[in-house]
What we know:
The complex is a heterotrimer of chains A (226), B (267) and C (219).
Chain A: E1 2-4, E2 22-32, E3 35-46, E4 50-54, H1 61-69, E5 76-83, E6 86-88, E7 94-97, H2 109-119, H3 126-135, H4 151-164, E8 169-173, H5 181-196, E9 200-204, E10 215-218, E11 223-225
Parallel strand pairs in A: 1-3, 4-9, 4-10, 7-8, 8-9
Antiparallel strand pairs in A: 2-3, 2-5, 5-6, 10-11
Helix pairs in contact in A: 2-3, 2-4, 3-4
Chain B: H1 8-13, H2 21-52, H3 66-93, H4 96-128, H5 136-157, H6 161-193, H7 208-262
Chain C: H1 2-17, H2 19-40, H3 44-67, H4 69-76, H5 79-84, H6 90-119, H7 126-151, H8 158-179, H9 187-218
Helix pairs in contact in C: 1-6, 2-3, 2-6, 3-6, 3-7, 3-8, 6-7, 6-9, 7-8, 7-9, 8-9
Amino acid sequence: MKTIEPMARSGISPTRATAVSAVAAEGLACQRGGHIVVPPLSFEVRAGSALILRGPNGAGKTTLLRTIAGFLPPAAGRVRVSSPKGDASVEGHLHYIGHTNGIKPRLSVIENVSFWQRYYGGGGDPEAAEAALDAFDLLDLADYRAAHLSQGQTRRLGLARLLAARRAIWLLDEPSVSLDAASTRRLETAIADHLASGGIAIVSTHLDLSVGEAAILELSRAQVLQ
Amino acid sequence: MAELSEPQTMRTWRVSTLANPTAFMRLSGKLLPWLIAIMLVLFAAGLTVAFRAPPDYQQGETVKIMYVHVPAAWLSMGCYTIIALSSAGYLIWRHPLADVSAKAAAPIGAVFTLLALVTGSLWGKPMWGAYWVWDARLTSVLILFFLYLGLIALREAIDEPGRAGRAAAILALIGAVNIPIIKYSVNWWNTLHQPASVIRADGPAIAPSLLWPLLIMASAFTVLFVVLHLKAMRAEVLRRRCDAMIAVRVRGNAAQESAAGEAMSHV
Amino acid sequence: MNAFLALIERDLRLALRQGSAIGTALGFYLIAVSIIPLGLGPDLALLSRIAPGILWISFLLSAVLSVDALFQEDRDDGSLDALAIGPLPSELIAASKSLSHWLTTCLPLIIITPLAGLLLNIELDAVPKMVASLTAGTIGISFVAGAGAALTLGLRRGALLLPLLILPLFAPFLIFGVGAMADAPGAFVQSILFLLALSLFSIAAMPFAAALALRLSLE
């Protein structure tokens, strides 16, 4: 089993983002609609590290992410989360951003983020919501209704909830689609900061997204490259 | 049935195959001829005794519709009980035969319910002068009919079989919990609107000479239900096997390649 | 608890921002009530006698048609995924949705019921009884409807299937809701008690069924 460790950094300990020290898939096979989509694989991602999923369409990247998130029951194996208190499940430690954004057009930009912040237990701190918007360059659009946003701006708003409430594990499915270069840099910065504070990121992407020295999992061949 | 040759690892995680229906198929295959024989005997006996029994002083010969109506009403309830138990079994233990049982029973129950409604209506016409009088029991059976239709419709509407089975199971349990409430409500409603002297749907107390034929006919219909249910379950098992074989034929080559290449997941 | 309130608050805000949603439900209710005298003739005595039944039936139809969207929008825009991995268990998510439905659909309909009753020449002292019976019973209806909406979530033909599934389950509510208006002694108290019991039972039981169904639809 390949263990993916933080590279070229030292002294990283799980700090505020985490009560999680690793996420591991053990013999995890993923199914959808009764058919095996991803044959069994195993990996472990330690705190402060990232895993990138690559593969052609239909290779099962989304299915794998949704299985880790707990939406789909695995066909075999399991997902294990290690924390200082012992083993746990992924519940309560996740952010999942799929192809859609979870944004309500009738609410304003700041209302959208504030809702997720409050819902995920981040308290009602307005400064944290504003900081999340600022990180994705949406702060001056804060009071506009989300309906007015462009596709790229909506995507950024969807990503902003990653920063509105701190959670250890980020599962991102094609996060940079419809983002321009500048916004992609902002996303990369957000991911880098998350990793630096001991978080974990598993990202599926076919675009260029640099998250430092991340391991790569090619899904049509189920090998961990690098 | 020829067994499919697959890598051993694949077989344990194929979620669409039945757990072990072979035992069920074998047992039911042996049981069915006996059950059919018993059923024919019971029907022969029941019908003979039924037609020899004296006509009711009030209702004449038409009371003999009761021999179909009452068992059909009993079975419509009994069938729903079976669906509810199967559904609970499926949700708790995920055993595929439980899903097969629930799926097979629904149309049969719907037909028995419809039979009860039609015979109830025909029986009522000479008695009350109308084909439908909204008495308590017929109304409850009518609502039960809609519950059956809902089960069948929900299963039809969902394409993915796993989700369809579980959704139908949830709906069946919701219905099962509601049936006593519905019956109580309909009874209350009926007494509210038709106080006192209403003719009970099954007439005055059944005389003993009518009781024995009724019991025999009820037993005959029960065995009929069991026969139909087993046959429907067998058909469903075969249907699922065909689907699984087609799936392997269509997707199997691709699945087998990736499985063979990457069944070992270590690098 | 904070998450539960946040979700209710969000759904209320969304419903208020889109006035047309509440307005459409109110409009449908009034049209349904109005169309019946067109079919029956303007016999005021008759209408007055059957007014409770007509009001309850129109209410049920309005409720059924408005619950379809309960989860659909959240599923389509990805909110349901994000809600599911949050701190609330699916049962509470379903309960919150049903409660929001009652607040944004049933409550406005209850408020407009006296006006609708006027169209049917309802007796004035029947109005408070009508409002009481609706208030006692419709909470349960929102919860039953929520379970139905969760079961048919995402199905293409769900809009027609949903009424078929849940209208039979509404029968006890309808029976006792109208029974509260009956002349028989004690009918009112007995009916209201039964409606409250039905509603409490639905609040307790339906979210579990809805949660199972929601998890199914996430797969």
